[in-house]
Specification:
By secondary structure, the protein is mainly α. It contains 8 helices and 2 strands. The relative contact order is 0.10.
Length: about 170
C-alpha cells in the first residue's frame, strides 16, 4: 500500500493535468484523477512491469475523461479567476505590459477554442500538444488507427484556425 501511495504522489499532478485539459474544470479533473488511480489500483495485476507506468496511467485517464465528456457533455468551468465560464487572462512576467496583455488575451482565446473542440478532436489535440505524444503513441493510447488520429488532429487544427481567425489575423 505504501508503494502504491508513493506512485500516486509521483504521478498525481501529471494525471490531473491531462484530466484538466480534457474537461476544462478543476472539480471534474480532480474526480477523474482519483477515478484513474482507483481503476489503476484494481487493474494493477494486469500491468506489465517491464513497461513505463505513466503511459498506462495516462491511457486510463484519457479513457475516463472521454467517457466523462460523452456522458456529461460540456460543463462550464467555475473557478477563481473565471468570468462567464472564461478564465481571465493573467499577464506573463517580463516584457512590455501591452505585449503581455496581448499574449494573455490570445492564450485565453486559445484555451476557450480548445475547450470548444468536440471530445474526439480535443483528446487527440491534448495528447499531441500538451503531452507531446507522437501520432503512433496517440494511436496506441486511444486505440485508434493512425489515419483517424491524423484526420482528427487536422480537423482540430482547422477548427482552431476558424475560431482564432481574428486573433491570428492581427499577428497575435
Amino acid at each position: 500500500m505504501d508503494a502504491y501511495e508513493s506512485l500516486v504522489r509521483r504521478y498525481q499532478q501529471r494525471v490531473y493535468a491531462v484530466c484538466r485539459r480534457l474537461t476544462g474544470a478543476h472539480q471534474s479533473a480532480d474526480d477523474l484523477a482519483q477515478e484513474t488511480f482507483i481503476k489503476a489500483y484494481f487493474a494493477l495485476a494486469r500491468f506489465d512491469a517491464q513497461w513505463p507506468l505513466y503511459p498506462w496511467l495516462r491511457k486510463i485517464a484519457v479513457n475516463s475523461g472521454l467517457n466523462y465528456l460523452k456522458s456529461r457533455g460540456r460543463e462550464r468551468p467555475l473557478e477563481d479567476g473565471s468570468v462567464g465560464g472564461r478564465r481571465m487572462p493573467s499577464a506573463p512576467k517580463g516584457d512590455d505590459p501591452a505585449e503581455q496583455m496581448e499574449r494573455a488575451e490570445f492564450q485565453a482565446k486559445l484555451d476557450w477554442a480548445v475547450e470548444s473542440l468536440p471530445a474526439d478532436q480535443k483528446s487527440v489535440f491534448v495528447l499531441r500538444f500538451h503531452e507531446s505524444l507522437s501520432y503512433e503513441e496517440i494511436s496506441e493510447t486511444l486505440g485508434l488507427p493512425l489515419g483517424t488520429v491524423m484526420s482528427r488532429l487536422n480537423r482540430a487544427r482547422q477548427k482552431l484556425k476558424e475560431l482564432l481567425a481574428d486573433s491570428l489575423g492581427r499577428g497575435a
